[in-house]
Amino acid sequence: MKNIHSKILNYLEEESIDIFFKRDIMNQMNINTDDFERGFRWLVQKMHVVNIEKGKYRRRHFTDENVIACFMSPDGGIAYWSALNAHGLTEQFPNKIFVQNSRRRGERSVFGIGSPFQFVNVKPQKLVGYKTMGYGNHAWYMTDIEKTIVDCFDLPQHAGGYNEIIKAFNRASLNARKMATYCKAVNNIAVTKRLAYLAELLNKPKMDYFLNYATDVCNEKYNPFDASLPAKGKYLNRWRLILNMDEGEILEIANSL
C-alpha cells in the first residue's frame, strides 16, 4: 500500500500535476486497477488529494479558484463580474466566481475553496473572446476586455448591475472590430444599440467601425436603455432606445469612482 500511494504522489509531483481526472492518472500509470484504487483511496482519506466533484481531484495545496472553475467547465471560462474585476474595470469584488459555459448552470461550492462558483449557461455561439491565462496544468481562460463588456450588458445581473457596467464601459480601452464581432456572436440587438449609444455619449475614441456595424443591425423596435427599469422616458430615434435613465445621470455614473 505504501509503495502504491507513494508512486501516485511521486507521479503527480514529477509531472507537475495539481488538478486532474482520476481516470487519466490511472490510465497513465502502470499499476493494477485494484491496487491503484486502494492507493488512491488512502491518499483521499489522508487529504493528500481532495475531491472537487465526481472523478475530478486536486492536490491539497492547490486552491487556484480560476483554474478549478475552468477545469469544472472546460468549454467556457471566467466571465462577467469576475472578469470585470480581473481587468481592473471595477473595484467591486464579487462574492462568487462567475463562469460562462454551455453545459451547466447554478451555484456550486467546492470543499476547501472560499468562493462558490456561479455557472452561467449560454448558447455555444456565445463562447468566444477568451484569452488563455497561466500555463500547463495551471492554465485557465477568461473573456477579454471587449467580450467582458458585451457579456455584462447582455446579462447585467451577473455583473453588479447597470451602474457598474456603465463605469466599466467608460474606463475600458476598446477595439471597435472586436466589439462588432462579439456583439454579432451574442446576437442581442438591444445590447448593440445600448453600447452604440454609450459610445457616442461618452465620446469613446476609434469606435467608427463598431458604430457602423450597430447602424447596420439596428432594428425598428424601441428598447429601454436599462432593461431593469420601466420602459418610460425619452425616445431616441438614432438607436431606437427609450432613455429610462437621464443622460446627466448616465454621465455622472460613468465618471464616478
Description:
With 257 residues, the protein is α+β, with helices and mostly antiparallel strands. It has two domains: 58 residues, Arc Repressor Mutant, subunit A (Orthogonal Bundle), CATH 1.10.10; 189 residues, no CATH class. Helices cover 43% and strands 17% of the residues. It has eleven helices and twelve strands. The strands form four sheets. The chain has a four-stranded mixed β-sheet. A three-stranded antiparallel β-sheet has the order 1-3-2. Helix 6 runs parallel beside helix 8 and helix 8 runs parallel beside helix 10. The longest helix is centred in the first third of the chain and has 13 residues. The chain is elongated. The relative contact order is 0.09.
Helix and strand arrangement:
Elements: H1 2-14, E1 19-21, H2 22-28, H3 33-45, E2 49-53, E3 56-59, H4 65-72, E4 77-78, H5 80-86, E5 97-101, E6 106-108, E7 117-121, E8 130-133, E9 140-143, H6 145-154, H7 162-171, H8 176-186, H9 189-201, H10 208-217, E10 223-224, E11 234-236, E12 241-243, H11 247-254
Parallel strand pairs: 5-7, 10-12
Antiparallel strand pairs: 1-3, 2-3, 4-5, 6-7, 8-9, 11-12
Helix pairs in contact: 1-3, 5-6, 6-8, 8-10, 9-10
